[in-house]
Amino acid sequence: MKKTITEIINKFGETNQLIIAMEECSELIKEVSKYIRTKDNKENLTEELADVCIMIEQIRLIVGINELELYEMMQKN
User: Fold this and answer.
1) For the chain, which residues score pLDDT lower than 70?
2) Could you tell me if 31 and 48 are in contact, meaning their C-beta atoms sit under 8 angstroms apart?
3) Which of 14, 17, 36, 65 has the fewest CB atoms in 10 Å of its CB?
4) How many CA atoms, within 13 angstroms, populate the side-chain half-sphere of residue 46?
């Protein structure tokens, strides 16, 4: 998966992918809100969560955060 993500970043550019990351986060926010109201959109919520996870990996690679740094920060929070 890392090779594909790196290829995507190289093809579309870092700035573009960071913008896409913001858009995907926005879509996840919308689906979480719908889930709170309806409890009826698990599939859509799962799809948006997957998209955000992919974008998190792209952000990590663009910024230069290694997996250990991210894991350690997650353990702190």
Assistant:
1) 1-2
2) yes
3) 36
4) 5
